[in-house]
Amino acid sequence: MQKKLMVTNIQRMCFHDGPGIRTTVFAKGCSIHCPWCSNPENIGFQAETYEKDGVKGVYGKEYSPSELVHILLKDQDFWDGKGGVTFSGGEPLMQAEAVRETAIELKRHQVHTAVETALFVPTEKFKLALPYLDFFIADIKLLDGELCKTILGGDTQTYQENVKLLHHSGRLGQFRIPCCPEYTFTDENKERLREFLKEYPEIPVQVFSVHGLGKKKYETLNRPMWESKGVGQDALEVYCKELRQEGIRAEVIRI
Ligand code: SF4
């Protein structure tokens, strides 16, 4: 029997989730907990009901890989030859079996597959899906082991091991740094990121400020939202310039 994928949303016409125009599948459940997360409905692994202003809803619906592929293929005409399907989340690789089955079926239809991942997943799970995903967008957040454990609940050793494996596979397409002055955009972490990125000079790096766009979703879940001060465009540009001086292909994006 096919393993089902728990999904919160299928978003069409996405322009920042890999090459070309894409359809993005938001998988529910994450292995870490970033304070700045703007997708709180994607952190828990089970479906969650909510009621807000008299409107009832559910975050999360299970799809078998065949059901999902049937829905996704309806977008084929929009993918402009370069685009395809991106798995995002949450952490899609925590549902590696279902992502793998879905990607295998998409590949049968010659669909390009990508994934947005924080890479804090057991390496065995990661290896399961790796051969069927063409393009990886990998986050880099906190590289100090203790901070990463305390703030995100993530293990930097597993992260680093997964990055190395991914790079070796030739499927590492992009790094992404969510910047917030309170955690990831401190002088110390910026320095760690710079040293880390120097090992991967050919991989483009996108840098962006975290934002408070998840506010309404936090309200529906009745959860408090932590708000970052965010990082201004100028400071991001300066950092990218410094990275480029080290041979790192960094650019600022807005998402
Ligand atoms: S990895 Fe993404 S989905 Fe998971 S907690 Fe962090 S920001 Fe949210």
Describe this structure in words.
This protein has 255 residues and is an alpha/beta fold. It has a domain of 176 residues: Aldolase class I (TIM Barrel), CATH 3.20.20. The chain contains 8 helices and 11 strands. The mean pLDDT is 96. The structure holds iron/sulfur cluster. Iron/sulfur cluster binds next to loops.
Strands side by side in the biggest sheet? 5-1-2-6-7-8-9-10-11
Under the CATH scheme, the architecture of the domain at 5-180 is Alpha-Beta Barrel
Question: Sheet with the most strands?
Answer: 9 strands, mixed
Query: What multimeric state do the chains show?
Result: single chain
Q: How would you spell out the order of helices and strands? A: EEEEEHEHEHEHHEHEHHE
Termini separation: 38 Å
Number of helices: 8
Mean pLDDT: 96
| Helix content estimate | 25-40%
The bound ligands are: iron/sulfur cluster
Low-confidence stretches: none
Q: Beta-sheet strand percentage?
A: 15-25%
Just give the CATH class of the domain at 5-180: Alpha Beta
Question: Could you name the CATH homologous superfamily of the domain at 5-180?
Answer: Aldolase class I
Estimated radius of gyration: 18 Å
CATH topology of the domain at 5-180: TIM Barrel
